[in-house]
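Deliverable D2.4 — example input (structure tokens):
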């Protein structure tokens, strides 16, 4: 999960995501709209008797924040909470994905994150394996791992049975921020760039001092990074209809969407 605003629990319920689920939380910065959902979420996890540890990554301050709430509210947590002070670079390396961070450019320290899925193994062709006489079980597993096996003295190359590995997805989350070069390189060739697009062009003078981007600036970042899709987020509440933002962004980068609650994107 990237950031945890006030509405997070409600949205999780609507998306049917259980708070007991395995989860890591990456906080961009310590402004309320990005962290105030954490206390409630941790409380719900405790009430559900969560056992899995919870990993939270974020800039300085996040640890103190959670500790202070824990001290004063007494969540009675049933699970370990590990809080990591995140710095630019690779901050997480899991079996299936990595998370990297760079400094964004906001009014307080703020991190932008990339979620990079590792290449997925190719498809396993069951019919071919059967035709070649490979019995189901450990030999299939070895082939899936790219290792040759022997069946009745005959060597079977994994490439006969397993397709080419498929690239994983790369998603970059960059808000709150002014447009900047570190994000361009973090987002290089990403499948999706979710970027601050708080204002329209008439408010560019305000965007800079506030530490935000206009939709057109987000589009320039997307273009420079050669991403496949841009999703504008952190839209100012003044836009009941965000179509002006979409129009301005599309001038520089056509494949743009405005984020909506519970939006899903297919690959
Ligand atoms: Zn902020
Ligand atoms: Zn914000």
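Example output (designed residues):
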């Amino acid at each position: 999960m990237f950031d945890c605003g006030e509405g997070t629990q409600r949205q999780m319920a609507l998306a049917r995501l259980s708070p007991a689920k395995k989860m890591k939380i990456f906080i961009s910065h310590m402004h309320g709209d990005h962290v105030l959902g954490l206390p409630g979420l941790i409380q719900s996890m405790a009430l559900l008797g969560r056992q899995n540890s919870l990993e939270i990554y974020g800039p300085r301050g996040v640890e103190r924040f959670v500790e202070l709430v824990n001290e004063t509210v007494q969540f009675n947590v049933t699970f370990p909470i590990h809080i990591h002070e995140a710095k630019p670079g690779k901050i997480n390396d899991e079996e299936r994905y990595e998370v990297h961070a760079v400094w964004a450019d906001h009014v307080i320290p703020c991190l932008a994150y990339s979620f990079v899925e590792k290449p997925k193994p190719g498809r396993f062709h069951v019919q071919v394996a059967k035709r070649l006489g490979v019995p189901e079980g450990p030999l299939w597993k070895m082939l899936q791992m790219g290792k040759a096996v022997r069946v009745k003295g005959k060597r079977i190359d994994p490439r006969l049975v397993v397709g080419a590995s498929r690239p994983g997805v790369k998603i970059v989350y960059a808000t709150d921020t002014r447009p900047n070069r570190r994000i361009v390189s973090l987002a290089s060739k990403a499948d999706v760039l979710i970027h601050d697009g708080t204002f329209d062009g008439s408010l560019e003078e305000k965007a800079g001092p506030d530490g935000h981007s206009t939709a057109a600036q987000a589009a320039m970042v997307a273009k420079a990074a050669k991403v496949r899709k841009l999703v504008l987020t952190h839209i100012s509440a003044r836009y009941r209809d965000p179509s002006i933002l979409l129009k301005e962004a599309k001038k520089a980068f056509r494949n743009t969407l405005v984020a909506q609650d519970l939006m899903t994107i297919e690959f």
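DSSP finds ten helices and twelve strands in the chain.
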